């Protein structure tokens, strides 16, 4: 089972998209799904979060939402080159900045207008089965460790061999930092608690329902934890197949 899952999860080689049609289509998928973006500056270790708010192929321009934290603006407008990356359904979509963006506040909302990239890296990072949990069977989780003053408790929404999606009540986005490794992630799996370090890859507070969603990637998993994850994913995969048969 382990070998089969690892084979499914093997990264695919990245592609470089160069046609405006392909580039616009992939950027639009990030925009429409409201997938969080990570912005990094070449000479700095800090990460910033943003979203794509506009993709205009006719004008060859895109607009990025206000950065979180906002102090990244001074690097951007100082002309420092930066990289943008997002994940859409397991695909990493990344590009380098083209010139210095301009600030647009015309619609009572800050955004940064910049030229559409001429090259985009499209990288299918994960082919592994991502198992979603049914609402009535959500697993309790706790995120803690030295980087947090107090642990935060939430629910496990889905899981794959490489990471999982989490849900927390309220807005906890100011307590977490993208790219940070939290050394104590505990999930109360049906056959026993699993503990592992995780890296925070995505973070988004949905104001409408006052809920924070986070995506984490398992970090330096031990063999024991890997077997626990694979066992749980396999169990959910088997249940999903059974329900599919029942529906038919």
What features would you highlight for this structure?
248 residues; alpha+beta; 6-stranded antiparallel β-sheet; 6-stranded antiparallel β-barrel; globular; disordered N terminus
Care to give the gist of this entry?
The chain is of the alpha+beta class. The chain has four helices and 17 strands.
Write up this protein.
The chain has 248 residues and is of the alpha+beta class. 20% of the residues lie in helices and 42% in strands. The protein has helices at 2-8, 20-32, 73-77, 223-247, and strands spanning 15-17, 37-41, 47-50, 52-56, 61-65, 82-88, 91-96, 102-104, 111-115, 120-124, 131-132, 139-144, 152-159, 163-169, 181-189, 192-206, 211-218. The strands form three sheets. Strands 1-10-7-6-2-3 form a six-stranded antiparallel β-sheet, covered by helices on one side. A hairpin with a 2-residue loop joins β6 (82-88) and β7. It starts with a helix and ends with a helix. Residues 1-10 and 244-248 have low confidence and may be disordered.
């Amino acid at each position: 089972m382990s070998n089969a899952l690892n084979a499914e999860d093997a990264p695919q080689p990245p592609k470089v998209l160069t046609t405006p049609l392909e580039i616009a289509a992939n950027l639009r998928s990030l925009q429409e799904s409201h997938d969080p973006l990570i912005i990094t500056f070449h000479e700095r270790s800090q990460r910033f979060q943003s979203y794509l708010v506009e993709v205009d192929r006719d004008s060859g321009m895109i607009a990025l939402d206000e950065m979180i934290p906002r102090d990244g603006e001074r690097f951007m407008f100082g002309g420092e080159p930066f990289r943008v990356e997002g994940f859409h359904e397991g695909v990493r979509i990344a590009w380098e900045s083209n010139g210095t963006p301009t600030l647009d506040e015309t619609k009572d909302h800050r955004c940064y207008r910049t030229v559409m990239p001429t090259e985009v890296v499209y990288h299918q990072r994960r082919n592994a089965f991502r198992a979603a949990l049914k609402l009535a069977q959500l697993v309790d989780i706790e995120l803690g460790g030295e980087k947090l003053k107090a642990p935060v408790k939430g629910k496990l929404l889905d899981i794959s061999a490489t990471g999982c999606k989490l849900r927390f009540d309220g807005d906890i986005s100011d307590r977490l930092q993208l790219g940070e490794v939290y050394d104590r992630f505990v999930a109360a799996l049906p056959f026993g608690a699993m503990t592992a370090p995780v890296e925070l890859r995505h973070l988004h507070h949905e104001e409408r329902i006052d809920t924070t969603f986070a995506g984490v990637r398992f970090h330096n998993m031990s063999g024991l934890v890997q077997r626990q994850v694979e066992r749980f994913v396999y169990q959910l995969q088997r249940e999903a197949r059974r329900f599919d048969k029942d529906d038919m």
